[in-house]
Amino acid sequence: MEITLNLPNNFTAFQSMTDIEQDIRLSYSLWLFKNAKVSISKAAELANLTIYEFMNACKKNDVPVIDMSKDELLDDLAGMTL
């Protein structure tokens, strides 16, 4: 699917069209992932990033990658055997 977005000319003077497209893809991917619309791997794919790059983008944008509380995570870790 292709989406066309009309931006004022002075807006596009700040970045190249490629950079704007990437920023929009990343923003939309972060929104989809944050709102549980897609998995992390699908969001990374949409953003044209590796899963590790996408996880880093999540961190920079305060989007939690693990959807559990600290106590839940500690309980899970306590139950693991190595």
What does this 3D model show about the protein?
The termini are far apart. The longest helix is centred in the first third of the chain and has 18 residues, at about 15-35. With about 80 residues, the protein is mostly helical. Helices cover about 55% and strands about 0% of the residues. Helix 1 runs antiparallel to helix 2 (about 40-45) and helix 2 (about 40-45) packs across helix 3 (about 50-60). The chain is elongated, with a radius of gyration of 17 Å. It has one domain (about 15-80).
User: Largest sheet at a glance?
Assistant: none
Q: Name the helicity range.
A: 40-55%
Mean pLDDT: 89
Cα Rg: 17 Å
The separation of the N and C termini measures: 46 Å
Unreliable runs? none
Number of helices: 4
Secondary-structure-based class equals mainly alpha
Report the β-strand fraction as a percent range.
under 5%
- What's the shape? elongated
Number of domains: 1
Kindly state the number of beta strands: 0
Q: What's the SSE pattern?
A: HHHH
